[in-house]
Design a protein that fits this description.
Blueprint: E1 7-11, H1 16-27, E2 31-36, E3 48-52, E4 65-68, H2 81-103, E5 111-117, H3 139-152, E6 160-166, E7 168-170, H4 176-185, E8 198-199, E9 201-203, H5 204-216, E10 222-226, E11 232-233, H6 234-245, H7 254-265, H8 267-274, H9 282-286, H10 296-303
Parallel strand pairs: 1-2, 1-4, 2-3, 4-5, 5-6, 6-10, 7-9
Antiparallel strand pairs: 8-11
Length: 304
Amino acid sequence: MEPNLKRVVVAGGTGLVGRQLVRALIDLGVRVQVLTRKPLTLHVPAGASAHGWDELPSLLEGADAVINLAGEGIADRRWSPARKQAIRQSRLDATRQLVSAMKACAQAPSALVNASAIGYYIPKGAVPITETGAPGSGFLAEVCQAWEAEAQAATALGVRVACIRIGVVLAEEGGALPKMAIPIRWFQGCKLGAGTQGLSWIHEADLVAMLIEAARNPTWEGAFNGTAPEPLSNLAFTQRLAQRLHRPLLPVPGFLTTLATKLLLGEMAEALLLQGAFVLPARAQALGFTFRFPTAEAALKDLL
């Protein structure tokens, strides 16, 4: 589909994915308005402008799309009760504020593309999960479900809503990949836990392309998995990463890495590293979305 976006509002445009998204939209000739808590100090690329949340609802008036990535980083630090509350409320409050502002618009935005995460699902071992997978329980699953519900409220206003359930984002700078590479570079790499848990990932460029497609393509509505078509086990992904870095892996027993990871990260270890699902982007592929980096080998070759 040819680009047909003229003006897009991006919330969360300063994060790992948001920065790449803003640049990609500018390259397409889109006028980008970045919604931020610090509009006076935020540096944005030429072609974009920074705006405070106090500019709602006028900022949303007649926008072609709103892309909402706003929220505290899930893996930035250990989960305390206060940290979990911040993760939850930052997502729900931002989305609720956007939808509330849309209600006050004479012409609401055409589309809302809202981030979510594959933590939405019940892990099913090695059984692949598509968008029809059942919702899970626990902190991350409940956050994702509540987050999506806030976004879906915009449908009552005639706004098309697409929720992108994002997997592990692989990026050259920031995110999970540099952290995963460090122990392997220092000859300390090994699988985590049993190593059989799923690791559903996506190259940052493919995720950005998916967000833009969801913003401009009217057939993208509802939930979509923001993952590559090759989910791997933790062991298989770690092996590919070690091969790319020309390093061996240590044969460390799974119970030792499980214990060490839980001691280091607490509850976050189980939710983010020791559990996992094999999530497939079934709906995106059914609508003809093409991945530039469909395999981990291709993604790692590009990023490392």
